[in-house]
Batch of 4 targets.
Target 1
Amino acid sequence: MIDVFAICTGQPKRFRGSETSAIDKHPVEGRVGIGTIGIAGDSVADTKHHGGVEMAVHQYPHDHYAGWREWLGDHPLLAGPAAFGENLMASGLTETEVHVGDRFRLGSALLEISQPRPPCWKIEHRFGRKGMVAHIIAGHHCGWYYRVIESGEAQAGDALALVETGHDGWSVARLFAALYDPAQPPSRADLQEIAALERLCQPWRAKAEKRLAT
């Protein structure tokens, strides 16, 4: 059980040229609703690649911030909230310690890990630093998304409590490495297992099925 020290939301803003993004998120005060498509007051700009029921809530381990300071230097974003566009800010859980399908109670809401978070160019543009995506892939420091099983309310300071372990043996880090890290190619048996993970979102299962076919 860990404490969430900030719940963050954001709205689309101009980001690069004519493109917009909601990666710039800030803490909300008081209790906030958490529903099937996310946290009240939060939004996404690119609805093709972000948002929806399988990516309703994003968590990025605050534990990684120290390592990023070593790699990036004293970047001002790391001193503020939600540097990686995360909704939940908390320490004590990393990708090696949580599994696809793990269920957590946060306030009165019930969340279930649906997939790792694939890194994209927006992280590098936000920080103004090339190489961050490759660094995330090599370290498997990707963060993860939740789907919302039971809607509810939560606030900063509420505990994130594990109530059910999902696919034991398939940590977020292991799954991410299998499908994203070229240095750790999966076996055929791994791909078959991934394709059969019931609590893994369908697009990731499809990735495994496609790899099996080729």
Note: The chain has a mean pLDDT of 96.
Target 2
Amino acid sequence: MGRVATAPGLVADVPLRALRAVAAVAAHGGVSHAAQALHQSPAAVTRAVQGAERAFGVALFERGARGMLPTAAGEVLVQRVQRALQALQDAAQGLRSRGAPASVASLPRLVSDSLLQALVARAAHPTEAAAAAAAGLSQPALHQALRRLEHAARVPLYERTRLGARLNESGQWLVQQVKVAYAEIRVGREELARWCGRDESRVAIGSLPMATDLLVPQAVARTLAARPQLRITVMDGTYESLTRLLRDADVDLLVGPLRGDARAGDLAEEVLYVDRFVAVVRRGHPLLADGRRASLRRLAPYPWIGPLPGTPADAVFDRLFAQAGLPRPPVALRAHSTTVLRSVLLAGDHVALLSPLQAHEDVQAGLLCYASPPLPGSERAIGITQRRDALASSACGEVIAALRQVAAEAVADLPR
């Protein structure tokens, strides 16, 4: 692989116009045809490609009499840039379906980094002043950039409310696709850094409560042991909040209960294992006095901690009591947080239906107990959710491999 001179650190801010040039040269096999496709001069395209190579510190093309072919490093970058440009094309198509004229098809070719970064900054802050400060711009400069982008989009991106301007449906769609595009470029940059011997990769995981206690932490620990320079962020929240982050490419994958046939069409799921709920109580709970595991009928009179309304776990809760011919017991508390569940269980005689893995460490420590066997009819698939069109980075692939290993081992320890 060829190398070119570079500064000690990998340059992060290669302009979008230079990345377009790299992708076009790769697609057309040379500068002349790429220049025609981009409506630029061959000299401008050549300068853009050479600038990208200097910035990344890697030769992206092999030059020969028959044209220019991407190097192995160039193929890594080109794949990600092509996916980023496709996200911008998807943005234009989505705007077209939302009322923009056919001329919006030129948006991926016309937009610049400054316009897209202004949009992302404005989406992340409640006012233009706050967004401008975060982006390092004056407020008039940010406002002008947003106006230019709105002109290129050919449809309004904001709506006025009594609290100020906010993104409308078209604006939210454009922000989502822009963030996906920038995520692809970031991954391409990170993969090139590995070619240069610098691991700058990052992975963001969205973790639902039952995955936060054992599955995600152990997978993260294994991944970091094998790749210590990797930077991992774990975010928790509800399924709805985490899938929003997933669609916006703010997280790379979501771990926890799957939705199966009820999932949205733009998401893809991988089953790691099938879980069944058990009733969990504190050690020394009156139910345990006879040493027998309890039925739902014996559990029903105690105060219950229930799942959040409208969740699949809540539907399972209802179904289990209906199948047992019992009325749903009064729920004293509804909680999403494992920490809250644990504290309340330890403090009194409450009962909760949990995944065995959620209570695993406390059961091992003798603080909590499984009060029932795994309950038939409570089966649910646990696994990984990604965007359907996602292409995992090498770092994300290592996290996924670790999750598979941890899940396979955890299944062997589940109560029977």
Note: Residues 87-179 form a domain with the Arc Repressor Mutant, subunit A fold (CATH 1.10.10.10).
Target 3
Amino acid sequence: MSDAAFSHPRLARVYDPLDPDRSDLDTYVDLVHEFGAASVLDVGCGTGTLACRLADSGVDVLGVDPAEASVDVARRKPGADRVEWVVGTAPEVAADPSRRKRYDLATMTANVAQVFTDDADWADTLRAVRTCLRPGGHLAFEARDPADRAWERWTKELTHQVVEVEGEGPVEDWAQVTAVDGELVTFESPTIFHSDGERVDSTSTLRFRDEEALQSSLEQAGFSAVEVRELPYAPGRGWLFVART
């Protein structure tokens, strides 16, 4: 089940206005050019910002996400008709006999790789992505370095904002960590719509695996030539994993 931040229709509609700086996606656009990828599987595509951007440049893109509300937002974006959208998961795509296409590159942007808190779900996803890639294709995803302790910056004092959103008026939100249990970090993200006072609460849990564990999980899923790069837009705070089939 997706967090309310992605599955609640009203929250999905304000996701982009509340987080408009997506310069982090430049990293994945650069990888498309680096590998000469003509087709991309965007796992956890959310509201479709990367998928639409790639499709606009002529890349064949399939965007998959279990949050229907987010995919609905994606489908309404300019250029969305050039993207194939699937409400579901990577294992469901891989198991669908009607989908025989193999992709040059698969991506998991932002926190997507860290939402898989269960080892079995993570392993299933990696194996499914590998199935969806052509021989010699690549998977790229990012993960936060637990040594950076990013969650200590997820406080109301540091994240609080009120944004004027077209069609909604002022929208207030913030993040606040509520629990840290080993590698698992849980945080709340309340959103308040000032136009009518509605408050929607979302609770999320991310898993902060270390570099060795992530590399091992890729190798166990059958990937080779696993490369760990510095995360370009957040040096010292995370890794960019690039693995080849």
Note: The longest helix spans residues 119-132.
Target 4
Amino acid sequence: MSIQSLPSFIQARSIQIAEVLMARESITPADAGCQSYLMYKLEKLGFVCEKHKVNGVNNLIARWGQGPLHFAFSGHTDVVPPGPLDKWKSPPFSPVISQNKLFGRGAADMKTGIAAMLAATERVIALLDHTKVSYWWLITSDEEGEAEFGSKWIAQYLASQNVKLDMCLVGEPSATSKTGDTIKIGRRGSLSGTIEVTGKQGHVAYPKTAVNAIHIASKVVNALTRYSFDSGSDDFPGTTLQVTHMDTGSFTDNMVPSAARIEFNVRYSWQFDQANLSALLRQLIHEVDESASVRFSRPCEAYFTKPRTGPRTGPRTLNSDNQTKPCLIANVEKAVREATGRYPVVSTSGGTSDGRFFANAHTQVVELGVPNATIHQINEHIHLSDLLTLEDIYGDILLRVASL
């Protein structure tokens, strides 16, 4: 079913925009024209747009206004591969509306988030004061991949231009059941590690002439898994470590292995960063086996936008520069309440997100989007009502933030 055959009351702009974006096969790091479409629409609204291609990654940076308050919307146009096409009820890049649900790759993660923001921008841009707010769009095609030349690069580029964002709203799918039921104000960091343990090969019948690498590796694993990391807080889960793989090479049942490889991953709280966490892990490992080699990969820093102390009902908070700025969390909560009649759950659960590249002591970051129940799945979909609600919430947030 196309939007033209829908009842007029739900022929919303966000649905139309979502269909245009979802029809483009923008598998990471391809953009497939999504950002050109956005650029065309944003320039018509008065945005000054820049497109940057960095190592095959497309990045769009757009700005409206010259005000002292810098508010940004962050998102990505890339999607994960669709998987087996014969498992889909309809082609993944031919969006279909059925039973008031929108099906297709990117329906949840996160082309509908971009569509809702563009529709909301079209609705309220004439009501914003360009002397009070600088409104940014920061869009990449490399969120689902290695994320080295996407939002990370954009954040570095803004810093080189002396741009300090006050607030960044990330359009990732944050909801559990209904749009607005959950917002995310932080994510745990992630760090993967590889440990190489060396022993001495020998016959199992003569263990005194050999050194069993598995036995050493087991002691290393025990040291890591028994260590008491931080337990977290009410707002943020604690740090956890999981061993994900062990390998000793070719197996022979009468041979003591001479080497073992341990793979592990740590999901860590905002109380750690990559440097101090990796130093702690090296210390724990080398206390067991000082000759073990350790290397780390796929680092993703944690971030946490701290809520105001006490009830978060006030519109403003004090930032790192001792200036009074609007409190993003409070205004998001109010916008959600206005649209849905309920306050959202404030969460820091889930994997990593591009919010980590923009979050710092100065920049407040909140993630707010449609339900994430079907992200990366076959027959990815959302209910149309969730998209329309998101459009309303985004519009309200823009008006609230820009008017304070």
Note: Confidence is low (pLDDT under 50) at residues 1-10, 308-322.
